[in-house]
Amino acid sequence: MDKVLDVVNVTKIYPNGKKANTDINLEVRKGEIVGLIGPNGAGKTTLLRQILGLLKPTEGSITLLGKDIVKDPSIIKQEVGYEPQYPLYFPSLTVEESIGFALKFKGQKGDTLSKKLSQIIELLCLGEVRKYYGYQLSPGLIKLQLLGVALAQSNSFLVLDEPTSMIDIINKNHIWEVLSESKADKSLLIASHDMNEVKRLCDRIYLIANGKVIAEGTPEQISGLLRLPCKFSFSTSQSDLTETLLISKKIEYSLTNTIFYLSVDELNKGIDLIKEINDQTSITYIQFEAPSFDETIMKLVENSHE
Amino acid sequence: MSKIITAIEMEFKSLRIFWLQLLIVVFVLPFSYAFIVLISGNLQGASLNYLLSGYIVSTLISTFINMLGLRITNMRQQEVLELYSTYAISFPAIVISECLAYILITTPIVLIVLGYIVFTSQSINWLLLICGVLLTIVFLLLISVYLGLAMKNLFIANGLFQVITWILILLAPIYYNLDPLSSVFKGILLINPVTHLLNMVRVPLGFLPSVNLAFSYGYIVLLCLLAFFYISKRIHSTHILEKIF
Asked: CATH code for A230-290?
């Protein structure tokens, strides 16, 4: 697959000597959604700003569609659409004006502009607020408007910094669908704290902590990096029977209302246990993630601090 | 060029909720000074033209420094820079379009007042008048952009630019005559570039030069070059978020 973005050994040291990131290597291929995760202050936004040409890398190179962005910064404005992390807006521009200007700056006009503008507004369900001024919008709507600007601006590459933060769960699911579909003609780099978002959208993930990439791979590969206990919770139609079984097998558990919480050290052991419980009494609810992606991420970040 | 036209349109639309601030800066403040002078004496003919030519310059100072300068400082704020980075336009192109937008805003006042002066003046040196007005506009644009780029803190700029405007207007013979003043005060006024801008606008209208006209041109051109040098150095830096965020 062709590389759209290639970040090679990028290091950023601020003028006051603080190191924001060290030797970052990252690539985004055509038609791929790549996630950037890590704790607050890990260096995700710094890296995005370096990719956008807002910060100059102290060392290393960033290439976008084969062009070095330091030598040829115009490639960024030509190709990249960017949604910032914060809900930024022009107070006296309406939603349709904000998105419309992005299209105008890209050289669109007349019917083509109107058509494209309506498409984006419809796609993001912003029709009801298209005439609202920036100062009248909620943070969630501002984030949607920023995504609209990014979609209007981007040719081949979208950089999204926490694209669905502040957005309600209904719109969030819709945005995830929109982003998944945009893979057809764009590549995406998404910085996020939402693990559900990352697992659902991303083909590959880079985990950053203390300005360094500490893990990379698909969500499944990252989940399998550490041997962590498998946690699951379930309810059965006869709790007392289930309790007896767990006690007889000397398995530690906790019970809150009718939900059992327990962990086993291996996935297969967990599956066998669930089968056995289900043979005795029917399971009415189960939640099961093994190995847990979120826990693996937390453990990897903790290890990196050590 | 189409990007600059789009950015001008964007600026005009962005100014919609700031219309009162714009009205005060472009019209109310400069006119209030002129109004006091107008009602305090029976001004006619040449005296009125002297006052009105000063009014043109003070309108440009007030608008460019208080609106354009502040706008440039505002655009250098982290969040605004980041917001503009979502659009396909470079920072220098935005600055140029801002300058053009504020020229368009002041043009009606400048043309109407200048038209009245030209209509009522006995003798006019057209070439010098056009050069004088254009250089005045260019100088005040450059100085406003320079201030906007030099000032990092928007909250300080908000107050400081008003003080600078006030000093530039007060310490220049906009609404009073230079001749009866003491030599010390005259010397102070001659440091102020606005005194030279007024000289460049008034001499073509038949007023006696308050200082040698060639010296005024030389002084203003030199300051323009210095401001241009500074601006071109600062404006081309694309890496403008070089601080921890």
From this structure: 3.30.70.80
Question: Quick one: angle between helices B213-235 and B126-150, nearest 10?
Answer: 40
User: Does the domain formed by A3-222 have CATH 3.20.20.70?
Assistant: no
Instruction: Indicate whether B120 belongs to any domain.
Output: yes
Chain B touched by A56 (CB under 8 Å): yes
Task: Report CA-CA distances (Å) from A60 to A37, A91, A224.
Answer: 21, 38, 31
Tokens at A108, concatenated: 């669109």
**Does A187 score more than 80 pLDDT?**
yes
- A54 vs B7, B85, B244: nearest CB: B85
Buried b / exposed e along A53-78 (16+ C-beta atoms within 10 A)? bbbbbbebebbbbebebeeebebbbb
CB atoms B241 and A73 under 8 Å: no
What residue spans in chain A does CATH classification 3.30.70.80 cover?
230-290
User: Cα–Cα distance between B157 and B137 in angstroms, integer?
Assistant: 21
Cβ-nearest to A18 among B15, B239, B244: B244
Question: What is the predicted ipTM?
Answer: 0.82
Range from B6-20, B79-93, B218-232 carrying the lowest mean pLDDT: B79-93
Inter-chain contacts counted by CB atoms under 8 A, chains A and B: 87
Token pair, residue A68, equals 């070095």
Place of tokens 């700029």: B157
Q: CB A150 to CB B79 under 8 A? A: no
Q: What are the residues of chain B with a beta carbon less than 8 Å away from any beta carbon of chain A?
A: 2-3, 6-7, 9-10, 13-18, 79-83, 85-90, 238-245
Q: Which of B85, B98, B240 to mutate against chain A (most A CBs within 10 Å)? A: B85
Which tens digit of pLDDT belongs to each residue from A57-93?
889 999 999 899 888 888 888 889 999 888 888 999 9
**Residue A224 or B25, more confident:** B25
Domain that holds residue B116: 2-235
pLDDT tens track for A131-171: 999 999 999 899 999 999 999 998 889 999 988 888 888 88
Averaged pLDDT for residues A257-263: 88
